[in-house]
Amino acid sequence: MKYLILSDIHLNRKFDQNKLDLLMQIVSKADEVVLAGDFWEEHQLSFAKLAETKWKPLLDLLSQKNTVFIPGNHDQHAAQQHVTFTSNFTEEYRIEVGNRTYVVRHGHHIAPTMDVRNPRLFSNKYAMGFGTLFQLVGLHLRGQNFFRVFTILNNRMKKWAAENLSDNEILIAGHSHLQEDAFDEKLINSGVFKFGYAQYLWITNDGYELVNERY
User: Residue of 38, 42, 96, 200 with fewest CB within 10 Å of its CB?
Assistant: First the structure.
């Protein structure tokens, strides 16, 4: 069994052919796909509108897979949006491989950000635009190292995992956009699929592999 964990894809009105091509290539190789939150920007467009965009081939492919949807803070109402490619919505999904259990969550309830604490920000296009601009400028100046500004979020997830998970359980999360393999601290952050960065996680019977590439 080959599990693909994708988080923080943030599909929106702006279409990117290179992003779609790589997503199609990756998803096609998976037996089961776990969308671990922030699949699309529901504050920008409904799922019905998303299905009318050029992202539709990806939605069609996901419907052919065993796809699990874990809502994040950017698509928290997905279960009420008549998503066509899955009916399997959950806050937490467990993958058992051998004597190890991967506990997949988005992470926003564990390490809440400002928009989680104040959901009204999602209706403020200027606030949301500033958040995107902040990341774009940071990535331009510092490259991928910019994501380290979100280290505090990963640290909160490690603390939660240490306090709430058993010895054989590992937390898999996204949310922070900071990909990290902290297996010894009970956290694997699958990263982000945005801004030209394609980060994701494979889980198989042989173990796991974090991937970090560009599109």
Answer: 96
Beta strands in the chain (DSSP E): 3-6, 32-35, 66-69, 93-97, 100-104, 169-173, 180-182, 187-189, 193-194, 197-204, 207-214
CB-based contact 171:145 (threshold 8 Å): no
Count the alpha carbons within 13 Å of 98 in the hemisphere toward its beta carbon.
9
Q: Are 157 and 189 in contact (CB under 8 A)?
A: yes
Secondary structure E strands in 98-155: 100-104
- The residue ranges of every structural domain in the chain are 3-214
Structure tokens at 177: 């956009």
State the sign of the Cα–Cα–Cα–Cα dihedral 106, 112, 117, 118: negative
pLDDT, tens digit, for every residue of 116-138?
888 777 777 777 788 888 999 99
Distance CA 112, CA 9 (A): 18
β-bridge mates for residue 103, sequence order: 94, 171
CATH of domain 3-214: 3.60.21.10
Q: Strand runs (DSSP E) across 21-159, as ranges?
A: 32-35, 66-69, 93-97, 100-104
